[in-house]
Specification:
By secondary structure, this protein is an alpha/beta fold. 47% of the residues lie in helices and 12% in strands. It has 14 helices and 11 strands. The protein has helices at residues 15-39, 66-74, 97-111, 140-150, 166-182, 199-203, 205-209, 224-231, 238-241, 249-264, 280-292, 306-312, 317-337, 351-367, and strands at residues 57-62, 83-87, 131-132, 135-136, 157-160, 191-196, 219-222, 268-271, 297-300, 342-344, 347-349. Helix 3 runs parallel beside helix 4 (140-150), helix 4 packs parallel to helix 5 and helix 13 (317-337) packs across helix 14.
């Protein structure tokens, strides 16, 4: 039975209007940001290829655990995420930051070895084809030291939590450029994933994504636990486990805003990890929900979450076959009858619907590479 609502806790009459107006404002600013990003010049040198890998799954690995790091390189390709996230931030106590930095840097040098790569190619772990995206600390006293210890041609990108403003991203970009030069790496070859984890960051998301050259940015991430802390509430995932909801109501607004902002600048968006790693059905429902909000991938905290993420954010053979069927039928209708729309299995297919199925085929082709 639904619980009674006290008069003092009723939603104010103008609450939904205010939220609607705020959402419209965010979307307008997102479109303005898109126009700005597309007009910006690509300052500085950058990678020779604009083609970016589609990342469906990103698995955190504690950066201060040599055992877990070695295991990362031994995982078979069939069980591996698209990206490993060796973590120097939340997985590591502040007292152990220096030690973790040394452990991860030594692992990258001695266990994986140096590699000379063409910047048009994505550096991957040979055993499982995954890419490396370490998570580093955002605080100035740690950020520079983290980069100097771990950056190499083995590293494709870094992700940085607690990013609140465009000034934060500009600082990351400046220090990344300095360290790239020190290490003889091509400028903008190490890409960046800022993480939205506060109300201020959400308010500034368009400026964050428009603050540095587009070659530097790879995507944007969402961190739900720090966001909940900043907003003053404690996350409750029990209703999700019971199947009452597919995603947390308190997080839907921020997820929509991040998804829209990322899509506006044609950037990938990565959702916060699901902490209920023993509940596959709930994980699957949540992944489906956030994909529809615009997210292209999701972080994971346990290896048994990877298969679900690769499936839900990828394309299955059945989905590919259906897309081919629709595209071929549409092309035939255009060719033989000059028709711009038709019905297939009781559903109308026109140009916008066709594009959706063409996107499915493109993502399938990328998965096969």
């Amino acid at each position: 039975q639904p619980s009674p609502i006290n008069q003092s806790s009723r939603t104010p009459p103008n609450f939904h209007f205010m939220m609607h107006s705020f959402t419209i404002s965010i979307r307008r600013r997102t479109l303005s940001s898109l126009s700005l990003c597309l007009r910006r010049s690509y300052s500085g040198a950058g990678p020779t290829s604009p083609v970016l890998p589609h990342i469906r799954s990103l698995l955190f690995i504690p950066g201060n655990s040599p055992k877990m790091l070695v295991k990362m390189a031994s995982i078979a390709q069939s069980n591996a995420p698209d990206a490993f996230i060796p973590d120097l931030e939340d997985s590591v106590p502040y007292a152990s930051k220096h030690e973790a930095r040394e452990i991860l840097g030594r692992f990258l040098r001695e266990e994986l070895g140096e590699v000379k790569r063409d910047t048009s190619q994505v550096p991957r772990i040979a055993s499982n084809r995954a890419i490396l995206i370490p998570r580093v600390n955002s605080e100035p006293e740690y950020f520079h030291k983290d980069l100097k210890a771990i950056l190499s041609e083995r590293v494709y990108a870094i992700t940085v939590g607690k990013t609140d403003s465009e000034d934060d991203v500009k600082r990351y970009h400046q220090i990344l450029t300095e360290v790239e030069r020190e290490k003889g790496l091509e400028e903008n070859s190490i890409r960046l994933i800022p993480t939205i984890e506060s109300a201020l960051a959400l308010q500034n998301i368009q400026a964050i994504l428009a603050s540095v050259p587009l070659q530097r940015l790879f995507g944007v991430a969402f961190g739900a636990d720090d966001y909940a802390s900043d907003m003053g509430f404690t996350r409750d995932t029990e209703p999700l486990i019971r199947g009452q909801f597919n995603s947390e109501f308190e997080l839907e607004h921020v997820r929509h805003c991040i998804g829209v902002a990322a899509r506006a600048v044609r950037m990938q968006a990565f959702d916060t990890p699901n902490v209920n790693f023993k509940h596959e059905d709930q994980h699957r429902r949540e992944a489906t929900a956030v994909r529809r909000m615009g997210f292209t991938g999701k972080f994971a905290i346990h290896p048994n979450q990877i298969a679900v993420l690769n499936e839900m954010f990828g394309v299955t053979r059945a989905q590919y076959d259906e897309a081919v069927k629709v595209v071929e039928a549409y092309e035939k209708a255009v060719r033989e009858n000059s028709r711009g729309s038709l019905q297939i299995d009781g559903r109308m297919v026109d140009q916008p619907v066709l594009k959706q199925y063409q996107n499915v085929i493109s993502r399938w082709d990328e998965q096969q590479q």
